[in-house]
Amino acid sequence: MSNKLELDLPLVLPEVPDVADACVQRLLRTLGAKSGVDKVHVLPATQSGAAKLCIHFDPVALTLE
Q: pTM for the complete prediction?
């Protein structure tokens, strides 16, 4: 079973102006290649909040620490 962690993208990459930035793509590739990460993607910003980095991971293979 996969767990999910959502983080506000501006907290992870505060200097990045938007989700189309190359830094976001590098982060997605790097995290996606980690053992235990099932899926990583960006949820678009909404009227009530910023874009979110969403990481789906296997909690047995990868802990949040």
A: 0.88
